[in-house]
Hints:
Blueprint: H1 10-22, E1 28-32, H2 39-51, E2 56-59, H3 67-77, E3 87-91, H4 99-110, E4 116-122, H5 130-133, E5 137-140, H6 146-155, H7 162-168, H8 172-179, H9 183-195, H10 203-208, H11 215-231, H12 236-251, H13 255-267
Parallel strand pairs: 1-4, 1-5, 2-3, 3-4
Helix pairs in contact: 3-4, 7-8, 9-11, 11-12, 12-13
Amino acid sequence: MLFNEIVGHSKQLNLIRRLVERGVFPQSTIFVGPEGIGKRRIARELFQNLCGSLNVTEVGIEKPVTVDQVREISGWLFKKPTSGSGKAVIIDRADEMRGEAANALLKTLEEPPSYGYICLISRSESGVLPTIRSRCRIFRFAPLPDSSVSYLIEKQGLEADKRVVKLSRGSVGTALKLLESPVVDLVEEFASLLKSGDRLRKVLPFAEKFARLTREEALLFFDSLEAVVFERGGAPRWEELINSARYYLKFYGKPQSVVEWFLISAFNL
Length: 269
């Protein structure tokens, strides 16, 4: 049965199955939800079922698609399949597409070929242009429960660390990244640092640990801190500070420098 191996998302998957069985699954869709909860896997299995595995193309996995890539996949989509009953394009990171790429996609969304499907994968619904959203059926996927995250981690032969599961916020992808990094220990060390009487003296030694981390791992650290803040009911000033740190990290600073700034700012909250 379709989606037999997918864990969670029962409401959304049942709806998709019914649409497929009735032969009315929409040609243009957006799958929205947190990163790492299985949206792209669901899309892949769906369209392999509808079109055949050789007729499904995935783009935007490592970085957002460019306008040239949009034109290329649109050209591919409009060439009739030589086998199977249709063609499908899955575009990941749709909320990170630049305006010119999104605008180039609009024409294809407006008039897709009768056998063609386009599915956008996005973390944020509001991050997708309104003109694109209006042309797509939106399927919203929620974070997985902790029990499902633990099950999927253990299914891969790994130990489901309770700290990792909690910080993952329902994302198996995030949980797996946490298991491969020192971020969980750094989050706990940061919590101890906040309670320390001589915390200012410890800023540089703590920040130096981030010199060995990638920018992606540093972003994971701030995402994990955000998870802690939300678990405790939220705190606007902390959320604003974490968002600023992520912004600086993405566009300007090195991990160590951004963490130094963040710590000094945090101690003044």
